[in-house]
Amino acid sequence: MKIAVTGLNNTDNPGPGVPFIRSLLSHPDFDGEIIGLHYENLEPGIYMEGIKSKSYMIPYPSQGPESLLERLRYIHSKENLNVIIPTLDSELYNFIHISDELNSLGIKTFLPTIDNLEKRSKDKLFEFCQENEINSPKTFVINSLNQVNEILKELKFPIVVKGIFYEAYVCHTLDEVSNNFYKLASKWGLPIIIQEYLSGDEVNVAAVGDGEGNTIGAVAMRKLFITDKGKGWAGVTIGDENLINLTHKVISALKWRGGLELEILKSRKDNKYYLLEINSRLPAWVYLTQAAGQNLSYFLFQLALGEKVEPVRDYEIGKMFVRCSIDLISDIKTYEKIAVYGEL
Amino acid sequence: MKLNKNLALSESGFAFNGSTGDSFILNETALFILSKIKSNLSKEEILNSLIEEYDVNPITAEKDLLDFFNQLKIFDLLEDE
Description:
The complex is a heterodimer. By secondary structure, chain A is α+β, with helices and mostly antiparallel strands.
């Protein structure tokens, strides 16, 4: 059996592909072969030993679903793929768009629905939370800076200014709001999200939903060290029934299909959990979940195969990960193959 | 008074709050007090054992102990009473 996995960019802003693959390979029942799918010639996962048998370049998400499908048809003709697991947010729309074609080629996937993706988007999340009685910071979606004065009747500084896709800034003055509004609008487009600032500790939950409202598994983690890019460099599994119940509630309300990561804040003000964001894929720390007793990557793989997976709730608290940065040694001839032929 | 049920306390003085991910390194006195709370001793019993174990003025001991209990509350290490 051959499983293609994306997100081999195991950099200082790591994609989840390599930890996803390591999780699959660590499962005693896994007997497949991994095919890597990469976007850049220098994605570290291409050069790592024992991660994949072959890796193919695929077109950037911005090139659209047709060129992705064409490339995957070629790869399939060489490899006879059984399953593809995309692990990055930015490629999901394209994969969802071509999932029927992939299925007709005999390639299975297990992806969120378009409805899933839209409801969790930054500009819709607050509405979703309100409808489902989930705590979330008060949020306003604006298209013009003029709307900020009205919002400031309800919110007090500091406030958070967020781009529609990425980046967020805590602003203490109207000038800061104005600067960041234009900066984010020019980079990611409109609308801009204005959000209540809450202080507290951020925790994360990685989980898998079966698409029918059931949570197959969920593991919570607190980051112990955060890089200057805001990425967790070390973390530890934590256990809190309220946190896991919140995750089940979100997955049930969305009927989430596939892997996801919740970003949650435990507010210092009232000690309650507030949902900040839903990322529509498993996180780069997913390898920790198998060490804690829930191999979320393997669950997702089983769901893609159409297998019935029994939900699990327990996991080990106090399991830790610490990332490490090492130099992989390769040869320019290897790089040549990747750069010229787009495969290795 | 009860310790947070998710608090793992080691004889080495290392404490881990499994519900928040916070960890602490306790000094000898802090470990002594937490061990007594874990053994379900009352505040008065803990104070008496503290005075007995350490050469300390009872008034100072009581004041320091109350301060310490407050710190435990701030760090979410006690169950809500």
